[in-house]
Structure formats: C-alpha cells, structure tokens
Amino acid sequence: MDVVGSVGKGLGARYGSTVRKKWSEVVKSARSSYVCEKCGAKKVRRVSVGVWMCRGCGFKFAGQAYEPRVEK
User: Which residues contact 15 (CB under 8 A, 6 or more apart)?
Assistant: First the structure.
C-alpha cells in the first residue's frame, strides 16, 4: 500500500516517512484546484511558485507558494 502517493515514487525509501507524508500534503495542495475569487469557478491552478491563474476567466494573481490564499 502506497501511503504517500506519487511522492513515494520520486523519493523512494529516503528521507523518512514523516517527511514524505508532509511533502505529500504540500504537493497535493499545490496541484489541486481552488475557487476563483473573481468568477466563482473552481478552476484556479498554480502557474509557478506564488502565481495562480483561473482557467475559466483568465484572472491571474499572486498568492502563497502552495495555496492561493493570501494572509492579511
């Protein structure tokens, strides 16, 4: 059973299980879709580190590195 998903394939048996599980959560959150603040569609994806773009309306904005939420 592969607990860490696709991260386990890239890292193998290195770095310890705790680090692999945490990195798996980070990768999962970075690759998932989020709701656009402008149009409301669930099509916001990460373009690069801190840059997010809605594939529905084309709205591009800066956010956090692995999540589009901006802390105020």
Answer: none
